[in-house]
Design a protein that fits this description.
123 residues; seven-stranded antiparallel sheet
């Protein structure tokens, strides 16, 4: 009789464990992951050419530089900025088919502080 009770308890315990394991599996979450893409590549980085640089001086205070204009090639740049001195302010520019103009009034650029023209451009 003792052996029969032990077998019954073991069978009951095994059946209970199997039932709980299958129940736990039914409540697990599933994840849906959409297909994605990843890749690597390389391309040539080439510079731009700025020509025909012109500075516009203020009519009232000619020591102030109000604008810089130049032609850029290739003309397909969407972002252009200029700097008139090392460590100086960066000025945003507009590019219309390669004709670039940059207002240099905020902060006001001066002819005395303008020691170099640095142009940064990107597609």
């Amino acid at each position: 009789m003792r052996k029969t009770n032990r077998i019954r308890r073991f069978a009951f315990t095994a059946a209970l464990a199997a039932f709980l394991a299958s129940g736990a599996y039914a409540f697990t979450a599933s994840n849906t992951v959409p297909g994605t893409q990843v890749g690597a590549g390389s391309g040539t980085i080439s510079g731009y050419t700025a020509t025909n640089v012109q500075y516009t001086l203020d009519a009232t205070t000619p020591t102030n530089v109000n604008a810089v204009a130049f032609t850029i090639a290739p003309a397909t740049t969407s972002a252009v900025k200029v700097q008139l001195s090392s460590g100086g302010a960066w000025y945003s520019c507009t590019n219309t088919a390669g004709a670039v103009s940059c207002a240099t009034t905020s902060p006001q650029a001066t002819a005395a502080a303008a020691t170099q023209l640095t142009v940064v451009a990107a597609q």
